[in-house]
Amino acid sequence: MQILTAWRRIARVFLPFAAGSYFSYLFRTINALIASHLSSDIGVGAADLGLLTSVYFFVFAAVQIPIGILLDRFGPRRVQSVLLLLAALGAGLFAVSNGFLLLLVARAMIGLGVAASLTAGLKSIILWFPRERVALLNGYMIMLGSLGAVTATAPVEHLLAWMGWRQLFDIMALATGATAILIYVVVPERGVAPSTAAASLSSVFSDRRFWRMAPLSATCVGSSWSLQGLWASPWLTDVEGFDRSSLVRQLFIMSIMLGGGAWLFGMTVHHIKRRGIGAETVLAIVAVLLIAAELALILRAPLPSIFPWSVVAIAGTATVVSFAVIADYFPPELAGRANGTLNVLHFGWAFLAQSATGLILEQWVRNDGHRPVQAYQVAFGLNVVLQIATLVWFALPWRRSIASWISSILFFRPADTRCAVESVGLYEDSVILLPANDDVEW
């Protein structure tokens, strides 16, 4: 097959998959804006709303590993086009649903239909573009996809002013189906190297570096998705006292920050890797900033809420960083499986956090239509505790390496060579002992 030029690759490969990512973000976050409509039209309460919104994440997480295998076996073009057709059917069913159960089924279909949107896009980048450009293009992919979250704020609010949410989902169903056809027709086929699924998955699951990084990535990214995708809206209404226009404006700003975060992370990882610095360092910084932002919300710090909420939104694009780490850990033929495995944890945690938050909030009675701030402090605080635990787990190899280095200085003796070898063997995920290198084969 004749090699396409860079611009033709962008037009025929990158942009169609970016459109699929756009609909993934749109479906993921739109419930935050139509939550009041669902409550008034169908009588959905906080616990049911949390389950209805989070079932998207549950289904998304449940199918990530099978989808990763399918992507590695059949390629992103065929897998993505078929699944997006299912998402279009789910959106159409959501538009005509009159009860909670039917809405739940439709939302699950949507989650399954867009489950490959991110990983298919990342797989296509790995297959069609140079490796040194992968982190940068991942950032651009997520940045363009996050425009779906932007659309699910002020633009959708304007549409809802002259059409109902049912008509809106009809339009989304048609647009998603058209994107599925576009990907199947426009994207060229690319040969995928065959590999053994069992052995490949085993190499992912047995990698200790993966299990050192993945819990931190999951609790940070998943919590960000949970909060921005649903619970930011009730918080701003109940705790901050925002009216509808102020709420939509803040959600719009958060969505803009989401796209900017993806671009920023892509550029940052691209440049630091060229200087031999591991992307794990950026992930740790993001985790610290997210925890600080959530504590600012919980403790009611005296600053405009848009600042901590913007950090929460930006943390949702730390997938750019996480997948850059994965690209260093595993060869290209395992990209679909490795990214899918990590996404299981991302979306699995988003499901748990989103549904658990709804259950916790239901324990408090509404006063004048609003829940007390203590309800949100308890729900959000549980997230923070778990994030701190995963950050400590992630930092253990660094702590031991630094302690060993300080000990060798204090006692005026060189580091024990045997200890150094043992450290590399036991803590091979440490970015201090194993700096990132684009040419390394793990």
Strand and helix layout:
Elements: H1 6-29, H2 31-42, H3 46-62, H4 64-74, H5 76-96, H6 100-113, H7 117-128, H8 134-145, H9 147-151, H10 154-160, H11 165-186, H12 197-205, H13 208-238, H14 244-274, H15 280-298, H16 306-315, H17 319-329, H18 335-361, H19 373-410, H20 417-426
Helix pairs in contact: 1-7, 1-8, 1-11, 2-13, 3-6, 3-18, 4-5, 4-18, 5-6, 5-7, 5-11, 7-8, 7-18, 8-14, 8-17, 13-14, 13-15, 13-16, 13-17, 13-18, 13-19, 14-16, 14-17, 15-16, 15-19, 17-18, 18-19
Number of strands: 0
Q: Specify the overall morphology.
A: globular
Assign the structural class, choosing from mainly alpha, mainly beta, alpha/beta, alpha+beta, or little secondary structure: mainly alpha
Into which percentage range does the β-strand content fall? under 5%
Low-confidence stretches: 408-442
Count, helices? 20
Helix content: over 70%
Separation, N- and C-terminal Cα atoms: 30 Å
Largest sheet: none
Using only C-alpha atoms, the radius of gyration works out to 22 Å
String of helices and strands: HHHHHHHHHHHHHHHHHHHH
Mean pLDDT value = 82
What features would you describe in this structure?
The protein has 20 helices and no strands. With 442 residues, it is mainly α. The C terminus is likely disordered.
Short structural description:
The chain has 442 residues and is mainly α. 78% of the residues lie in helices and 0% in strands.
Question: What labels would you give this structure?
Answer:
442 residues; 20 helices; mainly alpha; 78% helix
